[in-house]
Amino acid sequence: MTMNPTGLALIGYIAWLLLLVTMLVLIRATCTLTGKKAANDFNPNGLDVSPFSGRLCRAHANCYESFPFIGGLLMVALATDATRITDGLALPLLAARLTQSSIHLISTSELAVTVRFILFFTQIAICLWWSWRFAVLFLG
């Protein structure tokens, strides 16, 4: 059985979220088990652990903040058998999301932030395009 690009993008997005949260859990569990921090003493922004932990917390947050519109549109396409709307740009959107998060983990330089913004704007533009196409399809 093969899966369409829309389904692959949705599973890929969810897998990425799981990877990021697993990294957070491992970092925090290590800090707790080695006695560096109490289990109830973590700052939500992650900066109390390390700069990387802070970037990881933000990259993870960026993903779950975007999931309602990205994942939601992918799910609408799958649920309504309208993947013809999303299939063409589903994997490029996932690539933009993965690259945006990866850059976030690596650097907060001005160039890195600019590239991240471009990648995020690309995702927004794709979702706006899909929303328009769904509106035309479903509202006539």
From TrEMBL:
GO terms under cellular component: membrane
Ranges that cross the membrane: 6-27, 111-132
Compartments where located: Membrane
InterPro entries, A to Z: MAPEG-like_dom_sf, Membr-assoc_MAPEG
Main location: membrane
SUPFAM superfamilies: MAPEG domain-like
Keyword terms, alphabetized: Membrane, Transmembrane, Transmembrane helix
Pfam families to which the protein is assigned, alphabetical: MAPEG (PF01124)
This protein's name: MAPEG family protein
Native species: Sulfidibacter corallicola
